[in-house]
Specification:
It is globular and about 65 Å long. The strands form two sheets. Strands 1, 2, 3, 4, 5, 6, 12 and 13 form an eight-stranded mixed sheet that branches. A five-stranded mixed sheet has the order 9-8-7-10-11. Helix 6 packs antiparallel against helix 10 and helix 10 packs parallel to helix 11. By secondary structure, it is α/β, with parallel strands linked by helices. It is built from 13 helices and 13 strands.
Length: 389
């Protein structure tokens, strides 16, 4: 079965897509990545999305329009990817998170927009979506769902960890049958928010860390940011743009005397990511760490984390068959396959859920919804990439 996985993460800069062809080998699964890529949001659509995100006020009118426009954008990307590989059998769309409701240690709700019916209508195939809420109803954080993929990829590597550096950084630690995972804090989220708000780079991110390299770390600002109580909360825990956003940075800047140059702010936020990630990983006692996400392309972040963990072997997930920039899209292709085959795709230790759960809701394609025979489960995954993206 060929499944297209799609996601726009907390950096909300575009849509990542991967097409994976899955084949069952007993209780093992083999996945061949046929295509992976990323398509930027239309600048006007991205601007509207940013303007609607918390803590900004918005309206149901705007959310409804964004739900349609983002759904149509996802459908365009899904169709493009399907055409590249000669068609797909199903799609799994994460959509775009606009709010993740966390009260103290508990996640109580989550909202992803990007109406999946537009995808099902365009491609005519079943589309799995709304995948996080079922985990929350079972007592989980709804994140990081990537712990399911991480556990399958790292199961035979001793005590190993997988770090994702998206808008938010998250870590999965796998030690035999034991798995735990949580959101560490901001990776690119705060950096991108300042860059966009101040017009520092039309790309919307710090390409090759050029801005951070031109600045200096402001130690007083860094200390203020590191004092956030979130970092001391026990795992499992989750967070997002509802906590780490532009107003959050501005509030910290307002506490500092004088004006801090923009490049110093970016250098400080980059160091914040390095420091919080390295501290979190150091506490896990890992010896092997595989890294993915857009932040691994920022040399100051990746080099800083590597330097801060001299006893840890740091690799990119490309070496495990999962292209580092497309790992989460591959995850959602995997979740789609699992949902359609009646297989749970939650690791309780990864999200805090009380038990494994089958995730998502299914929108039928052009004809009657015919599901494949239920699979026994997935005990291992072997990935290879022949991607043409």
């Amino acid at each position: 079965m060929r499944v297209a996985g799609l996601i726009s993460g907390t950096s909300h800069d575009g849509i990542d897509v991967a097409v994976v062809e899955f084949a069952v080998e007993g209780t093992s699964l083999a996945g061949r990545v046929l295509y992976d890529g990323s398509v930027p949001y239309d600048p006007q659509l991205r601007a509207r999305l940013i303007a609607a995100l918390p803590p900004a006020p918005t309206t149901l009118d705007e959310i409804t329009q964004l739900d349609t426009l983002i759904g149509q954008a996802f459908a365009d990307v899904a169709q493009m990817a399907a055409d590249e590989v000669g068609g797909v059998d199903a799609v799994c769309s994460h959509g775009q998170t606009v709010f993740h409701w966390v009260d103290g240690p508990h996640a109580l709700g989550t909202l992803q927009i990007g109406q999946p019916a537009w995808i099902a209508e365009r491609l005519g195939v079943p589309t799995v979506a709304d995948v996080r809420i079922r985990d929350i109803t079972a007592g989980g954080q709804g994140a990081p769902l990537v712990s399911f993929l991480d556990e399958l990829l790292l199961r035979d590597r001793g005590r190993a960890g997988a770090l994702n550096l998206g808008g938010i950084s998250n870590i999965t630690v796998v030690d035999g049958a034991d798995v735990f995972a949580y959101d560490i804090g901001p990776a690119n989220a705060l950096i991108d928010a300042v860059i966009v708000a101040r017009g520092l780079n039309p790309l919307g991110y710090d390409d090759d860390a050029r801005i951070a390299r031109s600045g200096r770390v402001h130690e007083a600002l860094l200390d203020s940011l590191l004092a956030d109580p979130y970092y001391l909360l026990p795992a499992p825990k989750s967070t997002g743009k509802e906590h780490f956003h532009l107003d959050y940075i501005d509030a910290h800047l307002a506490q500092q005397p004088g004006t801090i140059p923009a490049e110093d702010v970016i250098a400080t936020l980059t160091e914040l990511t390095v420091r919080t990630v390295a501290d979190a990983i150091r506490r896990t006692g890992l010896r092997t760490l595989v890294v993915s996400g857009g932040g691994c392309r920022n040399p100051l972040i990746l080099d800083g984390i590597t330097a801060g963990l001299p006893e840890v072997e740091v690799l990119l997930t490309d070496e495990l068959g999962a292209p580092a920039d497309s790992k989460e899209a591959i995850l959602f292709a995997l979740i789609g396959w699992c949902t359609l085959h009646g297989v749970a795709s939650v690791v309780p230790g990864g999200t805090g859920a009380s038990a494994p759960r089958i995730l998502g809701s299914i929108t039928p394609g052009a004809g009657p919804l015919v599901l494949p025979a239920p699979a026994e489960g997935v005990t291992s995954l072997r990935l290879e990439s022949t991607a043409r993206g």
